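Box 3.1. Reading complex inputs
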Amino acid sequence: MRISALAAAADLPVATVKYYLREGLLPPGAASSATQATYDDRHLQRLRLIRALIGTVGLSVDHTRQILKLVDEPGDDLYRTLGSAIDVLPPQGAAPRDDADPYPRARAALAALGRTPDPAFSATAQLEAALAAAEAGGLPIDDDRLRVYGEMTARLAAFDLDHLPADHGAAVEYAVLGTALHEPVLLALRRLAHQQVALELRSGLGRNLSTHRRTES
Amino acid sequence: MRISALAAAADLPVATVKYYLREGLLPPGAASSATQATYDDRHLQRLRLIRALIGTVGLSVDHTRQILKLVDEPGDDLYRTLGSAIDVLPPQGAAPRDDADPYPRARAALAALGRTPDPAFSATAQLEAALAAAEAGGLPIDDDRLRVYGEMTARLAAFDLDHLPADHGAAVEYAVLGTALHEPVLLALRRLAHQQVALELRSGLGRNLSTHRRTES
């Protein structure tokens, strides 16, 4: 297909597709004449991924390029590659540190959960920052809460990884999009679950009060 | 105590404490002379909450004022009050809409989970936006995933609400700080759980490969 058809299929302006070509995010099409190129379904698929990463997730062109490189060249060590791809996602600024003991809270929490800390990945720094903020804000994560959060996230992760595509490139896509797109769903569902439980408590209290009144009358 | 002692106890500069007084976030102390006031432990407690909301969570002075008002005047309907307090937290811009069916995805998802949608709270709009983004990004939430996420968030909510303080004002504080400070912990733990499962898969694969090689030799 021509670039106009490709752009239409991806629901993007032609100028945007040309920009992605110039930035090297989208590989060039096959030259069909001196001034024209044709594109195939792989281009469309890649364009949809770029649109998701830039348009939906909100990544920069540079961060998108880093992720596409990992999709194209995932290598043999999928564990490292998935970790590197997730590291590109926000929250930024949680770069691994060099201290002797850079993440004391994260290390202790992961040890309590029987997990293996890997300071190479920024999620360890992210956990340290989150635990420090909870402490500073006066609502630290105690052992009971850590256990519950740890168990729930382990189950979520087992479910997510069960659905990991076998192809390594596709696995990188899935991990990146699943993290970036599903985290907001999870947080919204948790807030709504709080509401639901609060609503049930209110109804329960209402019922108890009625029962109480009936008993008295 | 004097304002200098109060500031020191809260680990804040005196100028910041004066600013919170001017903004009405911190109630005035008892006048001990024409130019001096004394403060007590309730001032210190309030100052620590303000510090958590502004300094740690990153709320604006206006949003902090809204939450403090709900802490001070929680009213009788704790369900509504907790919802209103959580609504002040980011993500902003998820204001309730007026359409006939403003949140089709959220409504369907909550119905599937047996929960009661409440469009008065912005978490419903937040869920709609998150589900729409997952769809647009090419990784929609299917029924299996919704069920797992729904179940896990319900358990987390039950745990959180079990620890809700009986006092309504304290409950508002707990709900706001628990949402703002514990969401990042949860997301970091989920990312690390993904890593852990991926690591176990890698080790498992390694073992299988070794076994395979030994069988062949």
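In summary: The first helix of chain A runs from residue 3 to 9.
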